[in-house]
Amino acid sequence: MRIEVRRTGGFAGIERRAAVDTAGRPDADSWHALAGAALEGAGDGAGGAARGAPGMPDGFGYEITVDGRTVRCAEPHLTEAQRELVSRVLREGA
Amino acid sequence: MTAYHSPTRVFCTIVPPHLLDRLARSADPAVAAAARRTLVTDEANRTARRLTTVTGVRPAPRGTPAASGEPRRTVFDAEQRTRLPGRKVRAEGDGPTGDATVNRAYAGLGATFELFLRVYGRDSIDGAGLPLDATVHYDREYGNAFWNGEQMVFGDGDGEVFGDFTLPVDVIGHELAHGVTQYTANLAYFSQPGALNESVSDVFGTLVKQYALGQTAEEADWLIGAGLLTDRVRGVALRSMKAPGTAYDDDVLGKDPQPAKMEDYVETAADNGGVHINSGIPNHAFYLAATALGGHAWERAGQIWYDVLTGGKLKETADFATFARLTVAAARERFGDDGAETEAVLKAWSTVGVPTRG
């Protein structure tokens, strides 16, 4: 599974991208579970409400792509799973 | 290590330590006094203060001071979590805590409150004494600050690229100015009105810093976020109003993408249509008008911008040209047709390629 995160906006307005390929990783299962939960969150009110809508001033906007399927969310409308996934990918990804 | 977009490099970093703390200990008494003005929290001075506007500036037509005329600040600590507002750590009138981040946030809220009240006669963000709440230590390694519609939120930075977001006082002013915009013109946060929203926050953010330091337009650095980048980054700040596009140029961070002129306007879907990118154009127009007029930028250029923001004619979806025309009208109304102010504003917009006729 390939998980990509693109972060835009923020006070600095500096774009940041990172990706994680879970193939062969010992923690692949936890990545799959987290990615699944993050995509699921995109369909409900919490994550979905922000789709296409401008975020709050200086909030981060995110594009999360999992095996080609992309969801968008913006602060403060991130589910816990989305928040954890984006910070983990940006921290550990390449 | 994750990748930032677009690699390049050029110049060296200056990372000033905490601006106000340092300046308050400056050997230059004028600089030290100005810095202390924002740091000082004692009630004795506060009660002695009079409600005066800056000499030579007529009072703003609206937003006259409400009864209080005193800030009502509260700083909260999110303790590295994301729940807002977090634990209350310093309330109005409390002495400094052992946490420099809390104290900087408190002082920065005060400095911003002072500019709006003393210069523009505006009592807090809403013009009616709104309490000022700020949360620090938001999330872990959070390289950002934002206004969530009700309060300011500051991260500690990732330590790699960004330091503590309470370090530059103009960042605090920038976030509070988003609140002022929300309560006045309420510019939409996308495309050109979004870039205007951003620019207005940079304008009043830098004016908070210039006012606190007592700087003239010539003395000011016109940088947004000076001192925020770590010494591992090649750059001086996040944005330059004087020379948009030159604030940083780093192999990890990329190059400052801001244009200074309309011909270089960046069309993009990212960042709500490039609100932090194209703000360079109105930012530079303000810089040009302010430096053409000279003296304290908050007195004339700042007053004109404030008049437009609060005058009731600026629509939520205004584009650059609409905003520019309104600044010309505001300059005429306040300073007269033949004034240097009107001429400076016309020339500034013309230089950045934004039409003021039509």
CATH class of chain B: Mainly Alpha
Widest sheet: strand ordering of chain B: 3-2-4-6-5
Overall shape of chain B: it is globular
Straight-line N-to-C gap of chain A: 14 Å
Sheet/helix structural class of chain B: alpha/beta
Report the average pLDDT across residues of chain B: 85
Average pLDDT metric of chain A: 86
What is the H-and-E element order of chain A?
Answer: EEHHEEH
Number of strands of chain B: 10
**Strand content of the residues of chain A, in percent?**
25-35%
- What is the tally of helical segments of chain B? 11
Estimated radius of gyration of chain A:
13 Å
Portion in helices of chain B = 25-40%
Question: CATH topology of chain B, anyone?
Answer: Neutral Protease, domain 2
Helix content of chain A: 25-40%
Major sheet characteristics of chain A: 4 strands, antiparallel
Number of spatially distinct domains of chain A: 1
Q: How large a portion of the residues of chain B is in β-strands, by DSSP E?
A: 5-15%
Descriptive report:
The complex is a heterodimer of chains A (94) and B (358). With 94 residues, chain A is of the alpha+beta class. Chain A has one domain. Chain A has 3 helices and 4 strands. Chain A has a 4-stranded antiparallel beta sheet with strand order 2-1-3-4, covered by helices on one side. In chain A, α1 (28-43) crosses α3. Chain A is globular and about 40 Å long. The two termini of chain A are 14 Å apart. By secondary structure, chain B is an alpha/beta fold. Chain B has one domain (19-351): Neutral Protease, domain 2. Chain B contains 11 helices and 10 strands. Chain B has helices at 19-24, 29-39, 43-48, 100-120, 169-183, 191-213, 270-278, 280-293, 301-310, 320-335, 340-351, and strands spanning 3-4, 73-77, 87-91, 132-136, 145-147, 152-154, 223-224, 239-240, 249-250, 254-255. In chain B, a hairpin with a 3-residue loop joins β9 (249-250) and β10 (254-255). Chain B is globular, with a radius of gyration of 19 Å. Chain A binds chain B through residues 8-18, 54-61, 75-76, 83, 87, 89-91, 93-94, and chain B through 1-5, 82, 139-141, 143-149, 162, 165, 171, 174-175, 178, 181-182, 188-190, 194, 197-198, 201, 225, 238, 253-254, 257, 270-272, 274-277. Chain A: This is Metalloprotease. Chain A: InterPro entries: Emfourin. Chain A: Pfam families: Emfourin (PF20242).
